[in-house]
Write a structure and sequence with these properties.
Shape: extended
InterPro entries: DHFR-like_dom_sf
Distance between the termini: 30 Å
Radius of gyration: 13 Å
Number of strands: 3
Largest sheet: 3 strands, antiparallel
Protein name: Bacterial bifunctional deaminase-reductase C-terminal domain-containing protein
Structural class: mainly beta
Order of helices and strands: EEE
Helix content: under 10%
């Protein structure tokens, strides 16, 4: 299985972090893989995300 993780918190839908407000871009600080394939990613907020335009 391939998983793609996009580090951004977006507006509507089921809240993971209640009441967070506007979209927040995240920067990957550290990543670890454990023997059974579990991964841990540590992110820090970096302000508002930049979105591509068409």
């Amino acid at each position: 299985m391939n998983l793609l993780i996009v580090p951004v918190v977006v507006g509507q839908g089921m809240r993971l972090f209640p009441g967070i407000g506007p979209d927040i871009a995240l920067d990957l600080v550290d990543s670890r893989t454990f023997p059974k394939g579990i991964t841990l990613q540590i992110y820090r907020p970096t302000g508002r995300p930049q979105y591509a335009t068409t």
